[in-house]
């Protein structure tokens, strides 16, 4: 791993942390204050955080990323949909089968989905 890639991973982690705060906060607000079922809140919060994350990845994480072409946008959207599916599956497994509190389940689901997101977002943004 070279220095540029290491710095890119650090920036990705910073942006990921911010995106997680958006995701986690919206999950809590949607479930506790708006009264949505936790899986609906999770889907909405994940989607909003993905859009926020994408914007920050293009402008901050992946330095030198140019305007995204159709293939890159399709890869990004497709990987995000799969990421949403992984997130929802993890949430359901942790909450319904393991009996975990949904906010704790979100932390574990995020850890699992983060690896997928880095690999696929890097490929989508870099081309």
Give a brief description.
This protein has helices spanning 3-33, 38-61, 70-97, 102-126. With 127 residues, the protein is mostly helical.
Task: Spell out the key features of this protein.
4 helices, 85% helix
How large is the share of residues in beta strands? under 5%
Number of helices: 4
Shape: elongated
Helical content (DSSP H or I, runs of 4+): over 70%
- Taking all residues together, what is the mean pLDDT? 88
Q: List the secondary-structure elements in sequence, H or E.
A: HHHH
Low-confidence stretches: none
How many angstroms separate the termini?
Answer: 19 Å
Number of strands: 0
Class inferred from helices and paired strands = mainly alpha
Structural features, described:
This protein is elongated. Helix 1 crosses helix 4 and helix 2 packs parallel to helix 4. The two termini are 19 Å apart. By secondary structure, the chain is mainly alpha-helical. Helix content is 85%, strand content 0%.
């Amino acid at each position: 791993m070279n220095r540029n890639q290491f710095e890119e991973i650090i920036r990705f982690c910073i942006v990921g942390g911010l995106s997680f705060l958006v995701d986690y906060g919206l999950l809590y607000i949607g479930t506790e204050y708006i009264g949505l079922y936790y899986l609906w809140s999770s889907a909405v919060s994940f989607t909003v955080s993905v859009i926020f994350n994408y914007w920050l990845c293009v402008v901050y994480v992946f330095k030198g990323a140019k305007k995204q072409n159709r293939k890159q946008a399709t890869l990004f959207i497709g990987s995000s949909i799969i990421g949403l599916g992984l997130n929802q599956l993890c949430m359901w497994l942790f909450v319904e089968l393991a009996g975990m509190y949904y906010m704790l389940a979100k932390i574990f689901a995020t850890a699992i989905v983060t690896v997928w997101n880095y690999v696929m977002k890097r490929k989508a943004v870099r081309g």
